[in-house]
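Let us work through a complete example step by step.
Step 1: write down the sequence.
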Amino acid sequence: MKILSILALYILITSCGSSPSRRVHEKQRTSSDVQIDAFDFTNKKLELRFEYRTYVEKILTSMSCDLTLNKEPSIKLIKDSQLELGAFSTEIISFDLNSQALPAMEKAKTIDYNIECTATYDKGTEYMQKHSVLHLVPASQSRYR
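Step 2: predict the structure and record it as C-alpha coordinates.
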Protein backbone atom coordinates (compact mmCIF):
# COMPACT_ATOMS: atom_id res chain seq x y z
CA MET A 1 0.00 0.00 0.00
CA LYS A 2 2.88 2.36 0.85
CA ILE A 3 4.53 1.67 -2.52
CA LEU A 4 1.26 2.29 -4.33
CA SER A 5 0.78 5.68 -2.65
CA ILE A 6 4.41 6.69 -3.38
CA LEU A 7 3.92 5.68 -7.01
CA ALA A 8 0.68 7.68 -7.25
CA LEU A 9 2.35 10.71 -5.68
CA TYR A 10 5.28 10.42 -8.10
CA ILE A 11 2.95 10.25 -11.12
CA LEU A 12 0.94 13.22 -9.84
CA ILE A 13 4.03 15.39 -9.30
CA THR A 14 5.68 14.56 -12.63
CA SER A 15 2.50 15.04 -14.64
CA CYS A 16 2.00 18.57 -13.27
CA GLY A 17 5.54 19.62 -14.11
CA SER A 18 5.31 19.27 -17.86
CA SER A 19 2.89 20.53 -20.44
CA PRO A 20 2.10 19.16 -23.85
CA SER A 21 4.55 20.42 -26.43
CA ARG A 22 3.32 23.05 -28.85
CA ARG A 23 4.93 25.19 -31.47
CA VAL A 24 5.57 28.63 -30.05
CA HIS A 25 6.44 30.22 -33.38
CA GLU A 26 3.57 28.82 -35.42
CA LYS A 27 2.46 31.40 -37.96
CA GLN A 28 -0.91 32.98 -37.34
CA ARG A 29 -3.60 31.87 -39.76
CA THR A 30 -6.12 34.68 -39.14
CA SER A 31 -6.66 37.01 -42.07
CA SER A 32 -6.20 40.76 -41.78
CA ASP A 33 -9.17 43.04 -41.15
CA VAL A 34 -10.34 46.45 -42.40
CA GLN A 35 -13.00 48.79 -41.11
CA ILE A 36 -13.80 52.47 -41.35
CA ASP A 37 -12.40 54.29 -38.33
CA ALA A 38 -13.78 57.74 -39.21
CA PHE A 39 -15.54 59.37 -42.14
CA ASP A 40 -15.86 63.16 -42.49
CA PHE A 41 -18.25 64.15 -45.30
CA THR A 42 -17.52 67.89 -45.03
CA ASN A 43 -13.76 67.52 -45.47
CA LYS A 44 -14.12 64.41 -47.66
CA LYS A 45 -11.68 62.39 -45.54
CA LEU A 46 -11.88 58.71 -44.73
CA GLU A 47 -9.71 56.88 -42.20
CA LEU A 48 -9.47 53.14 -42.66
CA ARG A 49 -8.30 50.93 -39.79
CA PHE A 50 -6.15 48.08 -41.10
CA GLU A 51 -5.33 45.27 -38.66
CA TYR A 52 -2.49 43.06 -39.86
CA ARG A 53 -2.76 39.73 -38.03
CA THR A 54 0.32 37.63 -38.64
CA TYR A 55 3.88 37.17 -37.41
CA VAL A 56 5.44 37.60 -40.85
CA GLU A 57 6.71 41.13 -41.45
CA LYS A 58 5.73 42.56 -44.84
CA ILE A 59 5.57 45.83 -46.73
CA LEU A 60 2.14 47.07 -47.79
CA THR A 61 2.66 48.46 -51.29
CA SER A 62 -0.95 49.38 -52.06
CA MET A 63 -4.53 49.17 -50.80
CA SER A 64 -7.40 49.11 -53.28
CA CYS A 65 -10.97 49.22 -51.95
CA ASP A 66 -14.54 49.43 -53.19
CA LEU A 67 -16.80 51.24 -50.71
CA THR A 68 -20.60 51.14 -50.83
CA LEU A 69 -22.58 53.54 -48.62
CA ASN A 70 -26.31 52.84 -48.06
CA LYS A 71 -26.41 50.71 -51.24
CA GLU A 72 -25.41 53.66 -53.44
CA PRO A 73 -22.94 53.12 -56.33
CA SER A 74 -19.51 52.12 -55.05
CA ILE A 75 -16.62 54.50 -54.49
CA LYS A 76 -13.15 53.37 -55.57
CA LEU A 77 -10.37 53.99 -53.02
CA ILE A 78 -6.71 53.47 -53.96
CA LYS A 79 -3.69 54.20 -51.78
CA ASP A 80 -0.10 53.48 -52.78
CA SER A 81 2.38 53.24 -49.94
CA GLN A 82 5.51 51.55 -48.71
CA LEU A 83 4.16 50.89 -45.22
CA GLU A 84 6.25 48.45 -43.18
CA LEU A 85 4.02 46.07 -41.23
CA GLY A 86 5.34 44.44 -38.10
CA ALA A 87 3.77 41.44 -36.40
CA PHE A 88 0.15 42.14 -35.42
CA SER A 89 0.29 45.83 -36.28
CA THR A 90 -2.69 48.17 -36.59
CA GLU A 91 -2.44 51.05 -39.03
CA ILE A 92 -4.71 53.95 -39.97
CA ILE A 93 -4.74 54.57 -43.71
CA SER A 94 -6.16 57.96 -44.76
CA PHE A 95 -7.95 58.58 -48.04
CA ASP A 96 -8.64 62.02 -49.52
CA LEU A 97 -11.97 61.86 -51.38
CA ASN A 98 -11.99 65.33 -52.97
CA SER A 99 -12.13 63.88 -56.47
CA GLN A 100 -14.94 61.43 -55.57
CA ALA A 101 -18.66 62.06 -55.96
CA LEU A 102 -20.09 61.18 -52.56
CA PRO A 103 -23.75 60.27 -52.09
CA ALA A 104 -25.93 62.76 -50.20
CA MET A 105 -26.14 61.74 -46.54
CA GLU A 106 -27.71 64.84 -44.98
CA LYS A 107 -29.02 64.29 -41.47
CA ALA A 108 -28.43 60.52 -41.57
CA LYS A 109 -27.94 59.14 -38.06
CA THR A 110 -26.39 55.92 -39.37
CA ILE A 111 -24.78 54.78 -42.61
CA ASP A 112 -24.61 51.15 -43.66
CA TYR A 113 -21.39 50.37 -45.46
CA ASN A 114 -19.73 47.51 -47.22
CA ILE A 115 -16.02 47.69 -47.98
CA GLU A 116 -14.05 45.21 -50.05
CA CYS A 117 -10.28 45.68 -50.12
CA THR A 118 -7.29 44.05 -51.73
CA ALA A 119 -4.00 44.61 -49.93
CA THR A 120 -0.92 44.18 -52.10
CA TYR A 121 2.26 43.32 -50.22
CA ASP A 122 5.84 42.85 -51.33
CA LYS A 123 5.06 39.12 -50.83
CA GLY A 124 1.58 38.55 -52.29
CA THR A 125 -1.95 39.89 -51.91
CA GLU A 126 -4.86 39.52 -49.50
CA TYR A 127 -8.61 40.13 -49.86
CA MET A 128 -10.71 41.55 -47.01
CA GLN A 129 -14.37 42.48 -46.67
CA LYS A 130 -16.39 44.19 -43.95
CA HIS A 131 -20.07 45.06 -43.65
CA SER A 132 -20.91 47.38 -40.76
CA VAL A 133 -22.64 50.60 -39.69
CA LEU A 134 -21.25 54.08 -39.08
CA HIS A 135 -22.89 56.33 -36.49
CA LEU A 136 -22.98 60.10 -36.47
CA VAL A 137 -20.53 61.52 -33.92
CA PRO A 138 -22.45 63.44 -31.21
CA ALA A 139 -22.47 67.24 -31.75
CA SER A 140 -21.31 66.73 -35.33
CA GLN A 141 -23.13 67.33 -38.60
CA SER A 142 -20.94 65.28 -40.92
CA ARG A 143 -18.47 63.08 -39.01
CA TYR A 144 -19.20 59.38 -38.61
CA ARG A 145 -17.51 56.53 -36.74
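Step 3: interpret the result. The chain has a mean pLDDT of 86.
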